[in-house]
Amino acid sequence: MRVNILIGGKAGQGINKVSEIVSSVLVQQGYFTFNYRDYPSLIRGGHNFNVLSASDERVGSIESKLDFILALDNNTIKVHEKELKKDGKIFSPDDFEGLGRNLNIALAGALIKILGIDKQTLTEEVKRQLKNSEEAVKAAEKGFDSQEKKFNLKKLNNKIKIMTGTIGVGEGAINSDIDLYLAYPMTPATGTMHYLAGKQYDNNFMVFQPENEIAVVNEALGASFAGAKTMIGTSGGGFDLMTEALSMQGISEIPLVVYLASRPGPGTGVPTYSTQCDLDIAVRGGHGEFPRVVIAPGDPIECIEKTNEAFYLSQKYNSLSIVLSDKHLAESEFSSDRLPNKTIPVKVKRKIPGEVITKASSYEHDEYGNTIESAEITKVSQENRVKKYEEIKKECQNFQMIKVYGNPKAKNLIIGWGSTKTAILDAMDKIDGSVKTGKGNYKFLQLLYIKPMSNEVEKHIEQADKVILIENNLTGQLGRYIREKTGFLIENRILKYDGRPFCCDELKQEILKIK
Amino acid sequence: MTDICRPFTIDSNAKDPLFSAEKITWCPGCPNFSILSSVKKTLNKLIKKGLKQENIAITTDIGCSSKIYDYIKVSGIYGLHGRSLPTGFGIKLGNPNLTVLSFVGDGGIYNEGISHLIHQGRYNADMTLIVHDNQSFSLTTGQPTATSQKGYKSKSLPAGQPDPPLNPAKIALAAGMTFIARCNARDIEHTAEVLEKAIKHKGFSFVEILQDCLIFNTENNLKDKLMYKVEDNKDKTKAGKLVEEYDYEKQDGKIPIGVLFQEQKPTLTDKWPQLKKLKDKGVSWRDK
Asked: What CATH number did the domain enclosing B269 receive?
């Protein structure tokens, strides 16, 4: 069983509230949900929509064909009608007149009835989410009573939690005992700043918004030097502004964690949409040669785990860790029945100002931090940075640098990273149930650590007859990087770069096209 | 992996506990030597009075001024050009118990880093900014900065600087800074007195030290004859007049030096309960 529900309307009409109510009810009944948010860069008006996909099995993407359209305005019908399945159903705003701001709640109620979930579950959820508003409950009931039951969703015995990548990164930071989060607003990284700002007083850390991204990163280095476990967050443009200081991190060796959430560039690009176009800058941004770790979680639970590892590595090696995500992972609502791995404790073990006299420098320096220009020390310092990277690389072997899904013996190898993961898993199951059964014709290699890259990547490629690269960008950035590391050119590439994520049914067709 | 760099040992019995053995690479006779003397005089006095040497942290920019990083034995970060101030502010965020001094040149703070300067008037962190203003980019061989006089001919502007200079003291006042002072690099005693007041001030202290460059933009040198000392001023109207007296350009008239303005406002630590807690406990985040 799988249904795809589009909820559309003008910004400000409460589209997300519908998704929240319906997802929450479904998850309580033991069903998995995935909610994709599509919105332009404006605050009121325009056309926003969510696509909510629900299933009795794990689901991590949406499909291109819709079972239901919940339209908060007539424009939504006009835009999306063609995506509706033959037996699909449209809920029009004209069906529920006189509800004003509660139109969205009525639509949620109508859908819940169709899915065959009882009225009490609905009204309790509406009360919980809308502060016991009587009008909202009335609207929900009005919507509910207007429909006939079409499905009969039995309660399942799954324990599922809904989470976004935004919250995952925030939770990972809190688990790592973060002291300071610094950021300048930039979609789609801002959500994590908001989430952490709301948590700062209860968890004894601080969120500060400086005057610009250059201040963010330089302040972060100052604070980290003084003993604070510090993380900063931004998107591509802000990251560009920060790169000089990331390079300074490389030579000064002040620990730093960076959250980079991509959106389509170049330039201002398509600011509220999604892409994987910033792998190159994550791996290489900043002048000079210095070590760094780039980790790309593929779902919110991995965001928790990998952000924790990023903190751990940066403190242990006085190094730079970048957690690479994108709008799709940051803002989509994933559901999962998997709990995160145990948190690795993160401690500041170095001596800090206040207890000793200690220096850190953007200049090449001697062991005390005094400026030097000698050829001898310059050479040794450069080499030491490479040696440090080798140590980091060794330590990373203790973590899950890659994951393998599907049939481990399959000769068709799909390679991907980040937010495409769950769509790839869904597409594989649609083809032949590879992921569910571990049998089918496909194996998926997910790269979680981009830098350092696992030595296993090369082995998997060698074992495969056919290798398929799937990325949400124009030029196949991971593919290029794999070629740099292994010499292997991946010729079969499925690339999507229109700012929208893969739908699993379309992805299935693309995979099957590759002979 | 443990410490970022090997910590220095503190010799509290030394005649000058701030002594650094690093070779000084300023030009012979550079007024930066005088500024270094003033800074060390002030810090040594404060150390004698009980300030812990390990509780001092400095940040520096890139430029002649910022070589001072190597010449004082205190904790610090040799930062990026234009970013000494946010780096110092970051140290304050990391541990509000530290006495933080950020050193900058006129190019670094009035050109590259001007946005950081303006916002410090709002944050009012309890720290001190020390501007070495020689009215040119000297370490890059004499290009004009925001405080170079109109008409200044240099290799990058052979026809002469067409634009008038900024008035940083006026900007500081407009930005709401709570301690604004100007000094003469050559007057070591007076500069040391002002620096002591700046460090003791609860809030953000802006101290601009006017200095000659012996190599570049020398036509702007020897302004000592125009300078006169003002009484510490807490009157904003008077401060408005004082900052107008010198436009960073004219070679006649007067240049007021001393504390041009001082007032009390809530500091960064007063405004953030998390920092207040660290301050009350006397610890950094590490030991929160």
From this structure: 3.40.50.970
